[in-house]
């Protein structure tokens, strides 16, 4: 079975039902843009959208929705939005044991209610954005407890038809905690790249040395184009370079394809990966592909 590797930098438009993602935004402007993106994505997919948070978060969103210039999503999307205050939000995250699990149970009940309502009113699913309040408790455990509990619920399909995006304000959480939060999520969104219509990939030929310069992201949406370009490596007799310095994300299938190309090389040539991103290095290491004789990693 494949090991779990967090998916990074995915477009918010690519979030599927059953996904559990997180994003750390840098301030109110980032947060407002993310709201616009999720509204647009929900409208395109026919999904109900739920925004849940503490009273301050809900008041901010209500103010934005009252300003026609603040939200760039189509007006029709606003009718698909429900904004809810999570009852007792501020009281869950004390230092007491089990506080995170208690909060997760409350969120699960909220998701079940909203999913049922979405199904009854003809929506294809529920896109739930949960804004985590800042400076919760006295340490990271309540936050991580609730994330682990919620992830188990989503992974088990309870309730079905939900995508959940946990949102954190970078100004209110330590960088150490945010790194732990990202490691606890299967999908990690970047607040800027999340606003792209879809993951984008550009591939430019390299002449000296021979190879490809990759820029953007590789996932199932552009895998056929990437595979076709990589087949060119099989037609040359020299080393082939993949410049990955600006490749922000590659899913496991893409990295496996790179490994398969390296396996097809004889002893007289190499597939050279130049400055691959941490997600690519991690995937190579987990599956042992970094030890392939014809595969080399170099940094510039």
Short description:
The protein is of the alpha/beta class. Helix content is 38%, strand content 23%.
Provide a descriptive summary of the structure in words.
- The chain has 300 residues and is an alpha/beta fold.
- It has two domains: 7-195, 3-Layer(aba) Sandwich (Rossmann fold), CATH 3.40.50; 201-298, Transcription Regulator spoIIAA (2-Layer Sandwich).
- Helix content is 38%, strand content 23%.
- The chain contains ten helices and twelve strands.
- The strands form two sheets. The protein has a seven-stranded parallel beta sheet with strand order 1-7-2-6-5-3-4, with helices on both faces. It has a five-stranded mixed beta sheet with strand order 8-9-10-11-12.
- Helix 6 (141-155) links the parallel strand 5 (126-131) and strand 6.
- Helix 5 (99-120) runs parallel beside helix 6 (141-155) and helix 8 runs parallel beside helix 9 (252-264).
- The longest helix is centred in the middle third of the chain and has 22 residues, at 99-120.
- It is elongated and about 65 Å long.
- The model is unreliable at 1-6 and 91-95 (pLDDT under 50).
């Amino acid at each position: 079975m494949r090991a779990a590797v967090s998916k990074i930098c995915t477009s918010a438009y690519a979030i599927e039902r059953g996904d559990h993602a997180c994003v750390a935004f840098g301030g109110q402007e980032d947060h407002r843009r993310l709201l616009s993106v999720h509204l647009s994505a929900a409208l395109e997919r026919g999904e109900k959208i739920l925004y849940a948070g503490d009273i301050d978060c809900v008041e901010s969103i209500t103010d934005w929705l009252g300003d026609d210039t603040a939200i760039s999503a189509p007006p029709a999307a606003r009718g698909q939005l429900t904004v809810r205050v999570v009852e007792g939000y501020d009281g869950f995250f004390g230092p007491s044991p089990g506080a995170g699990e208690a909060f997760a149970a409350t969120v699960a009940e909220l998701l079940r209610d909203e999913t049922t309502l979405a199904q009854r009113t003809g929506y294809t699913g529920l896109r739930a954005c949960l804004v985590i309040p800042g400076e919760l408790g006295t340490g990271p455990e309540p936050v991580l407890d609730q994330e682990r509990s919620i992830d188990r619920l989503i992974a088990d399909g309870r309730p079905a038809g939900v995508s959940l995006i946990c949102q954190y304000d970078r100004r209110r959480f330590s960088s150490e905690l945010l790194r732990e939060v990202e490691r606890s999520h299967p999908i990690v969104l970047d607040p800027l790249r999340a606003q792209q219509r879809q993951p984008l990939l550009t591939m430019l030929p390299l002449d000296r040395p021979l190879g490809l310069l990759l820029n953007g992201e590789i996932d199932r949406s552009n895998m056929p184009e990437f595979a076709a370009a990589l087949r060119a490596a099989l037609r040359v007799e020299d080393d082939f370079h993949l410049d990955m310095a600006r490749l922000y994300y590659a899913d496991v299938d893409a990295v496996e394809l790179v490994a398969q190309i390296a396996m097809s090389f004889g002893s007289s040539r190499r597939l050279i990966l130049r400055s691959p991103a941490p997600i690519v290095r991690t995937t190579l290491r987990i599956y042992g592909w970094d030890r392939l004789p014809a595969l080399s990693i170099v940094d510039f």
